[in-house]
Structures are given as structure tokens and as C-alpha cells.
Amino acid sequence: MEKVILHVDMDAFFASVEQLDNKKLRGKPVIVGGVSERGVVSTCSYEARKYGVHSAMPIFIAQKLCPNGIYLRTRMFRYKEVSGQIFNILRDVTEIIEPLSIDEAYLDITNSNFDNGMEAAKYIKNRVFKEIGLTISVGISYNKFLAKLASDWNKPNGIKIITKNMIPEILLPLPISKIHGLGKKSVEKLNNIGIFLVKDLYEMPKNFYIEYLGKYGLEIYDRIRGIDNREVKIERDRKSYGRERTLKSDTNEKEELLMYLENFSGEISKSLLRDNVEGKTITVKYKTSDFQSHTRSKTLNYYTNNFKDIYNTCREILDNEEITQGIRLIGISISSFKENTIEQLKLF
Ligand code: TTP
Ligand code: MG
């Protein structure tokens, strides 16, 4: 059966988070990166890209191109927090997720509850926008290479599907730099002998790929013919299933916190059931308004993936906590899996 693979990638991620957290930055050229003299740009908003600014460019050059830009230091802890929220949403689509970086992942949704890739893509885009307030670009295809190419197609806030009947025509006019897996050096080498477009490369005999590109040559030969058999690899040695959320406003109302725990327990139980996994250590984590993290765990004497077991344990943990400060983030996770179930998960 043909697979359905999604590649998702946040738009101008660090810069978008800055614009999310500070309304005054919206619609403006925002450049995030090291601010020292030798610092480089981590990323910039699409408004700044119009001036030619891009990732990895020295800040002093960016300042020449875009003197009116707003230059900000990175706030990694915040990007990680938002990244966690994004991956929580992705996990509601499937557990077969391969994270590639803080803002990017492959999903294999072939056996998920979604009828097709477009539906799953819209679901992800809607939730990321409504719950987090950011835009994400999604590519849909029947393999990883084409899904990644597709997510870049209509950036920002893009959605694009590449189907089998579009191959190879859709690929032929692209510059070879668009072929994921072809490094900068290889692109230069090929440019030097007059190969600029996929079309030029497509016409070369198989031997040429091996001679010019070495051991990855044959993969490139396949890819531009729409062939890529790489699996979406789930996070290796996965040790826990979890959910967490930064609250809209800090609270120390236990009733409100319990509502979150109930929701999370339901979501985690559903994922565990789907993957046929059972765990026995349940952890509640929360962050207080002063950013202090607290974690409390309880290990049951049996394995479970049952909603009530998870929720009741969380409630017990929370009941034993004295909460004096406001809480800004709450989450739960389950770990210590039954041996055979996690083996199955790896195989799967
Ligand atoms: P990317 O997804 O490559 O870039 P982006 O999300 O900023 O923009 P877009 O996807 O819309 O083109 O990288 C994700 C984040 O990783 C980015 O926001 C900042 C960080 N990053 C660096 O710190 N240095 C880099 O050289 C790159 C490419 C990214
Ligand atoms: Mg991105």
C-alpha cells in the first residue's frame, strides 16, 4: 500500500515566537541571533527576508542590509517550550513521528484515523494556529523526500501535496539545490559542468551519479525519480509518553489543574492503547510562576494504559502537593514500560 507521509516545519520559528510574545514586533523585520560582533543570524521573520537577510548570515551584514530591523537575542527555553506544544499536537495525529529539529518532523499517517493527508495537514495547521498562534507549513506525499520538498513549496503557512502522477514532471524544472541530500559541494560540482536543473541531472546515465556523487549517488538517482524507501523512524528508545501545557494564566486552583490532568490522562491513554503499550510510573510535572520545575512520580505495582489508573494516580500526586504559588505549566507522563510492549513499539 502507498504510504502517506507528512513533513511539517514551522515558519520562521524563533522569530515567529518573538512576534507571538510581543505584539509590537508583528509585521516587522525581526532578526534573532547572537548579538555579539561575531554573532550570526539564527533566523529572521519573512519581513526581514525581503532585505536578503537569512539564517547563518553574520549579524553585521544583516545590519547593513536591514538597518531598521529589530535584533533580538535567542530565548531557547521559550522555543523549546513552544516546540513541546507543537509536538503534543502532532502526537494526537500519530505516534509515528520522527523529529528532525526543534521545529520540524516527519509523520507517517498511513494507519492513522485520518482519511487522507490533506485532512491531517489541515487539522495540524488549525490546531497549531488556534492553540499556539503560529503558522506551520505542511507537505504531503508518499515518501519522505517528496513530503519535505512539498512543505517548502508554499512557505510560509503553506500546504502542498505531491502525488505519484506528478512525477517526474513537477521535479524537472527545479534547481538541483532543492534535492534534499545533495550537499552544497555537490551542487557546486554539478553546476561547474553545466548541470543546474533536476532536468539536466535526470538525463544523465546511472553511472554518472556514482562517479560524481559517490556512495549517495544512487539514492539521488532514485529520489529524482520519486523513489525513497526510508521509513519514518520513531524517536529511538522512546522512554515515555507525555503531555504538558503552558497555561493561559498562572493558577493555583487545584480544580482547574485537575481538569488538565484529566484531559492529558485521556490523551495519553488513547496513544498507549493505540500503540499497545503499558507503563507503570506516572509523573506529574509543574512549573511555578518563578520558573521553578517540580516533578513528582509514583510507580504502581502493575502495568497500565487505562485512563482511570493514570488519572487517579495523577490526582493523588497533586493532592499531596502544597501549592502556594501560581502554576504556569502542568504536564504528566508515563514511563517504565513493560518489556515486550516497547520491543513491539521499536519494531513497529
Ligand atoms: P528552519 O526551519 O530552517 O528555519 P525557520 O523555521 O526559521 O524558517 P522557515 O522554516 O520558515 O524557512 O530552522 C528552525 C529554527 O532553527 C530557526 O527558527 C532558528 C534555528 N536555526 C538556527 O539557529 N540556525 C540556522 O542556521 C538555522 C537554519 C536554523
Ligand atoms: Mg522552520
From TrEMBL:
The keyword Aminoacyl-tRNA synthetase does not apply. It is found in: Cytoplasm. Its EC number is 2.7.7.7. It is an enzyme of class 2 (transferase). The record marks 14 as: Substrate discrimination. Mg(2+) binds at residues 9, 103. Keywords: Cytoplasm, DNA damage, DNA repair, DNA replication, DNA-binding, DNA-directed DNA polymerase, Magnesium, Metal-binding, Mutator protein, Nucleotidyltransferase, Transferase. The active site is at 104. Residues 5-183 form the UmuC domain. Binds 2 magnesium ions per subunit. It catalyses: DNA(n) + a 2'-deoxyribonucleoside 5'-triphosphate = DNA(n+1) + diphosphate. GO terms for biological process: DNA repair; DNA-templated DNA replication; error-prone translesion synthesis; SOS response. Belongs to the DNA polymerase type-Y family. Poorly processive, error-prone DNA polymerase involved in untargeted mutagenesis. Copies undamaged DNA at stalled replication forks, which arise in vivo from mismatched or misaligned primer ends. These misaligned primers can be extended by PolIV. Exhibits no 3'-5' exonuclease (proofreading) activity. May be involved in translesional synthesis, in conjunction with the beta clamp from PolIII. Monomer. This is DNA polymerase IV. The gene is dinB.
